[in-house]
Amino acid sequence: MKMPELVQHYKQAKGILVVNFWSTWCPPCIEEIPHFIDITNQYKKDSVQLWLVSQDTKKLYESGALQQYVQQKKWKANMLWLNETNADYYCPLLDARWSGAIPATVIIRPSTGYYEFYEESLSKEALRSAIQKAINSVK
């Protein structure tokens, strides 16, 4: 998926969307993904969805190695591959503050206008708190 398409989709999301940007070569990313999956699953009744957006290479994606990696990890989440190479172009489309560093996460609730961007690893507690803020947000 290209970044403009991704942004368009998440702006139309129902409920709360947690969009995490990661890569197989990023140890902090790999470390936080299991608790992202666990915690967002705990909030499914609150219409929380998780999108894991890989920034791995086109070769890794097209060869099937990325899908094999995800299967090996037994991660069950919406997986997307970001088909972009120019961070100077696509980072500002997501958030003007994004330097391109990962992990990076956006938590949004389009119905209330809630939007938070994190350019850092999120602990279980920090993620839970961020989701709770989105749940409590009002228009």
Written account of the structure:
By secondary structure, the chain is of the alpha/beta class. The chain is 43% helix and 21% strand. The chain is built from six helices and five strands. The protein has helices at 3-11, 27-42, 58-62, 65-73, 87-94, 124-136; strands spanning 16-22, 48-54, 78-81, 104-109, 114-118. It has a five-stranded mixed beta sheet, covered by helices on one side. Helix 2 (27-42) links the parallel strand 1 and strand 2 (48-54). Helix 2 (27-42) packs across helix 6 (124-136). The protein is globular.
The secondary-structure class comes to alpha/beta
What is the ordering of alpha helices and beta strands? HEHEHHEHEEH
Helix content: 40-55%
Outline type: globular
How far is it from the N-terminal to the C-terminal residue, by CA?
A: 30 Å
Tally the helices: 6
In short:
The protein is α/β, with parallel strands linked by helices. Helix 2 crosses helix 6.
What's the helix and strand layout?
Layout: H1 3-11, E1 16-22, H2 27-42, E2 48-54, H3 58-62, H4 65-73, E3 78-81, H5 87-94, E4 104-109, E5 114-118, H6 124-136
Q: Which short descriptors sum up this protein?
A:
single chain; alpha/beta; 139 residues; 43% helix; 21% strand; 5-stranded mixed sheet
